[in-house]
Amino acid sequence: MSTYVVMAPPEFQDLAGDPRESDRLLFVPDRFSVLAFVFSFIWMLVHRMWMVLLGYLALTLIIELLALSLGSQATGIVALTISLLFGFEAQALRRWSLERKGWRVVGIVDGASPAEAELRFLNKEAVRMTPAPVQPEPPARPVRAPIVPRVGSERVVGLTLGPEARQ
After folding, report:
1. First-to-final CA distance of the chain
2. Which of the residues 48, 117, 145, 154 has the least number of beta carbons within 10 Å of its own beta carbon?
3. What is the distance between the alpha carbons of residues 29 and 92, in angstroms, rounded to a whole number?
4. What distance lies between CA 78 and its chain's CA centroid?
5. How far apart are CA 4 and CA 107, in angstroms?
């Protein structure tokens, strides 16, 4: 089971309106991305992550130039390490890129697949948006004066008379 971060575009208002608006939500998984690990450059192009792509190219170039001075084995190890790190952080960088474009996080949900996560999220939102049933108010009772036991004109407390009656 994976955790998905639910993101909404900048012009998205609320789920309370048209239910067809929910297909504009984006469910970004919070897990290792195998495609980003294997095809880093293409993965960034597909997801239109231009700033991340430029940073990735600059970092890769610098580290590759440093690794060339160390030897051919070090180059392969460094390239594998960079790809592995990018595979772990790819989805976080994708969320960061979307937030820079004005998208906002509207929720977090768990699911085995994006479809299941979407169903769980929309079900949770539907339950949250349904109004609570209105309970009818009980009929108002007339307010009566409290019963105070009296002996003549004096108040009685238990089996004794009050302090005014002792005199």
Report:
1. 83
2. 145
3. 9
4. 35
5. 9
The DSSP code for 107 is: E
Sign of CA dihedral 64, 42, 46, 78: negative
Q: Measure Cα distances from 26 to 71, 84, 106 in Å.
A: 43, 25, 10
Beta bridge partners of 108: 5
How far out from the chain centre does Cα 42 lie? 29
- Chain centroid to CA 165: how far? 70
Q: What is the dihedral of CA 56, 94, 103, 55, to 10 degrees?
A: -10
Longest dimension (CA), the chain: 112
Task: Locate the DSSP E strands across the chain.
Answer: 2-8, 26-29, 104-111, 150-151, 154-157, 160-161
Those residues whose C-beta lies under 8 Å from the C-beta of residue 113, and which sit 6 or more positions away, are: none
Residuewise pLDDT in 10s, the chain (167 residues) = 899 999 998 887 666 555 566 778 899 999 999 999 999 999 999 999 999 999 999 988 888 788 778 776 777 787 888 899 999 999 999 999 999 999 999 889 999 998 999 889 888 877 666 666 777 777 777 777 766 666 666 655 555 555 555 55
